[in-house]
């Protein structure tokens, strides 16, 4: 979407053009995938952990990945009127 100089403030309301939204999405991704990364690094380095501890870390990592995907939807819904409009339009067509 091209923004004319006079419409710049209106254009910044859209989630796709808002750097804060992008930073929030990246921050959520990093936080939610850090546990998965640690589990993979421990496996790669052959770090010995108690079986139960590794099992719990894997479960937590999987849960956080699901939370990340869900949270992204809510971030976009709360920050972008354009996303909301398209979402509601598509839901009405169902």
TrEMBL record:
Gene3D superfamilies: Rhodopsin 7-helix transmembrane proteins (1.20.1070.10). Coiled coil: none annotated. The keyword Disulfide bond does not apply. Keywords: Membrane, Transmembrane, Transmembrane helix. The chain crosses the membrane at residues 20-44, 56-77. SUPFAM superfamilies: Family A G protein-coupled receptor-like (SSF81321). PANTHER family: FMRFAMIDE PEPTIDE RECEPTOR FAMILY-RELATED, G-PROTEIN COUPLED RECEPTORS FAMILY 1 PROFILE DOMAIN-CONTAINING PROTEIN. This is G-protein coupled receptors family 1 profile domain-containing protein. It comes from Caenorhabditis brenneri (Nematode worm). The lineage of its organism: Eukaryota, Metazoa, Ecdysozoa, Nematoda, Chromadorea.
């Amino acid at each position: 979407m091209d923004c004319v100089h006079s419409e710049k403030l209106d254009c910044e309301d859209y989630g796709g053009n808002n750097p804060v939204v992008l930073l929030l999405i990246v921050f959520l991704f990093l936080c939610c995938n850090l546990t998965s990364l640690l589990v993979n690094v421990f496996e790669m380095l052959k770090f010995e952990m108690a079986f139960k501890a590794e099992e719990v870390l894997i479960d937590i990592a999987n849960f956080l990945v699901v939370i990340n995907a869900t949270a992204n939807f809510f971030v976009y819904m709360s920050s972008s009127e354009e996303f909301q409009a398209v979402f509601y339009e598509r839901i009405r067509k169902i």
